[in-house]
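Input set for joint prediction.
Command: fold jointly, output tokens.
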Amino acid sequence: MRKILTIATREYRAMVATKAFLLSVTMMPLLMFGGLVTMEMLQNVGEIKDLKIIVIDHTNQLYQPLNLAAKLRNKLYETDEQTATDSEADLEASGIDPKLLEQLAGDPQNRDEDDDFGSFSRGARFLLERWESSQVTDQIRLELCERIRNQELYAFIEIPADVLTAELPQSLEDFAALPSASFYSEDSTFSDAKIWFGQVINEFAKQYRLKELDIDPILVAKSSLPVRVRGMGLLERSSDGSIQAAEEKDDLSAILLPLGVLMLMFMVIFMAAQPMLESVLEEKSQRIAEVLLGSANPFQIMTGKLMGTVAGSLTIFAIYLGGAYVMAVYRGWTEYIPFGLIPWFVIFQVGGVLFYSSIFMAVGASVTQLKEAQSILLPVWLLLMTPMFIWMMVVREPNGPLAFYFSLFPPATPTMMMLRMSTGATIPVWQPILGMAVLVISTIFCVYVASRIFRVGLLWQGKTPKVNEIIKWAFRG
Amino acid sequence: MTYAIELTGVTKRFARQVAVDQLDLQVPAGSIYGFIGPNGSGKTTTLRMILRIFQPDEGTVRVLGNELGTTADDRLGYLPEERGLYKRMRVRDLLIYYAKLKGNYDCRRDIDFWLKRLEAEEWKHKRIDALSKGMAQKIQFISAVVARPSLVILDEPFTGLDPVNMESLKDSVRWLRDHGTTIVFSTHDMDMAERLCDTIFMIHKGHKVLDGTLDSIQSQFPANRIRVRFADPHFEPAPIDGIEEGMFTGRYYELTIRDHQNLQPVLHQLIDQSEIHHFELIRPSLHDIFVRIARPDQSELLNQ
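tokens >
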């Protein structure tokens, strides 16, 4: 037993006390959630850009409201008090209903609620400039495009004369017949400015048309007020017999939490199993295996290594859990932490780590090079990755047949069962218990088979055995 | 006499190939025992059976009085050829680990003793992959002996060492023997085997071909060379009856003779040519014997 502990301790230290471990512990979540986080961070840091946009307004009516709306919008990024006051004065002078304009400008604070992560260019001011000449030829358009290429200009938009006045089509389907404005920029597909122009012009066009039809815009706005449909959790009877009110669910707990749990399980298993492959390969290629086998039997070596890796994976879990908790407290999300899931997570994690580590060790013992291991491990990878491909379907239907069967398929059980449980849907308690039993049985089988392959493979030098030969080792010894 | 290792009728097959065939072997306790043999002759397989990594298909392997058993023996130390160290571990941590694996949990004093003895103290906090080949070889040696084994098996322990390091390692091997440890080592360096081993064992194609002290082995092989020094160092002897080939080694002429029973006529013919200061019949070196046995055509002859 003491030898097993000695081996486990070394394995744990080899896994945890390295720079590579620190790096991967920090890098993995960055890689997985990094896109979202960096986007959010980027728009909060750094300078606010000034985007210069030329407006070719053939209607002669839209430039002024657009410019005011842009100024109003820019106010939110204005650090200079004077400029802010100036634009306010401009607004009063224009005589346009400030409520309407405010709506047009698109208040970022309101938009925050619609869209959690926003986009890059919200940290930019739009500086509009009117194109004075009414004659616009392709030559002029080309020159403007050249200015965009030279970075003198961010974009230009051309609004045809009849966008407001065009006759409305008979049927709604014929909307394409209406004239359209053209927005030119290097990133026009994703440009926030393009979207903003669309919103402002459309709102203005709506007001204009309503006025033409002699309809009170306020009445239309009021009658368009939405009826909200709230997604609710299920009512529960609490321990004292009273019925607990249902809570409103939101995106965060419905999507981010299951995704986070899935990613965490995947990362923990991956980070625990991969070093096993490398350590066994090193022991084999450096002929350390012979020293080990001369000091302990294969069972002790394998058990020690598995214990070390489980301890390592629990360390990773603790680090991430701690990190998640700190972040949750910082952002006020503590209510979302599913404390009840933690014991289940630990159980499935240990099972999953043992399951995959033993496979990785067996493969590491069978081959002589990392490259060969990778080709043998491809199907194993796919098994581990499957939940990544279907997680959305499982989140939508946590008790559907796909989710149910996959969560009882041992290689997918740790990730799938946790994914299902973290959706908050009621999973009959026998299912995780059955999943656990299936996992335990298959893990025992897996460790047993792997230890037989491990014993033969460790001393195997020379050419890499074929998969069927490896299987033969497992059953004939 | 007590034996540290006793192999009786041991056979080991891999698939259809017989690696070791009906091998009998006795290693006296407290001696230095050299294993020689060409590559692929069954040396490593035999060592692995002694280490209990392999089980023999036939016969018995008795090590330190224990027959059979699959559990590794803590009284055995093992140094595999060249490698055998975790590259990313630090010297001291690695030695502690290997000592503990062999059941020596209170190993700090032993580690310090060996690091000092092999003048390796300043490396103890270095990582293995920062060591030179010779340094790594010394650390590897320490890792094999740090748990105070009764029997040490060293596979090619002297490759990659400069003469100074080699001497200090040889001294350590002798020191171990003088303190009661049995040492089995395999080597391709015949000179080393001649000078260090009490007993030499040679395996070829899975069979034992030599086993005994250097004297007893040499006495099995007739001396077929003479060494001659002439008074005139620049003198070149003319071809003589009974001499097959000759070469000048700097001070001596070494001549291979056809018939060692009939030296007198050769000596007479040499005296006739020039004045002689030195004349000696030389016994075959282990190197010569090895080559005689392992050279393909010669070994065929030997088997007949």
